[in-house]
Amino acid sequence: MRFILITGLFIIWVAGQKSLAQTDPGLIDPILIRLKGRIISIADSTAVPYANVFNNRDRSGTITNSDGYFILDVLNIDSLTVTSIGFQNEVIYLPVGYMGQETLSFTMNPRSYPVNEVEVKGESPKLEMNLGTGKPVDISPELRGNAFHEKPPILAALFNPVSFWQYYLSGKEKEKREVREAMLLQRNWEMHSLNYNKEMVMKLTHTNEAEADSFMVWFNAQNILPYTATEYEVRASIKYYYEMYKNK
Question: pTM for this structure?
Fold first, then answer.
């Protein structure tokens, strides 16, 4: 009876050690594997194209293709950081026992930019000196040019004090500017993702897919291209820094 009890306790101890080894990365033997993965949006399960995937251990990395797929040689204990415009940064880990047989799917959370509702009240402007109000503007106030939203000069405090102080003190004017900035931010992000991608890099640098991946990993690490860059600025930066990349 005592022998059976001791044998049972030994089996339970061995099973516990095995379970601990599977959950504690410090007890896992590092093995080099080829990770095949895909990045998708958690909101609608669509692919996240051209996302940056970095290995936190050795800072190597790659970029997902237009369908969100990527391949990267890693250790089974590595953690990866995934970044993409319009999404929150994610840190991903390989599941225990994964040896590269199948393609793993990882999710990213889209960033949300809440915009408060703006209620504008006021009275129709009174005409002075028998001058008309000019030609109506059909463009949405939030998307009008900067001239409609520039800070009034100091001299305006003397010649038009009502408008001057309304700009600085009115909460409604501040809300309108915040709405416009949020709309421009979203529009710039959408434009940026169209101008900066692997196809564009391959076209401008005359490189193949692997060479374009390597250059884009280096280029992204420089953190030199703001999301507000125009199409011309994107193309000019790619050409300029590719020459620097070749000569480094």
Answer: 0.41
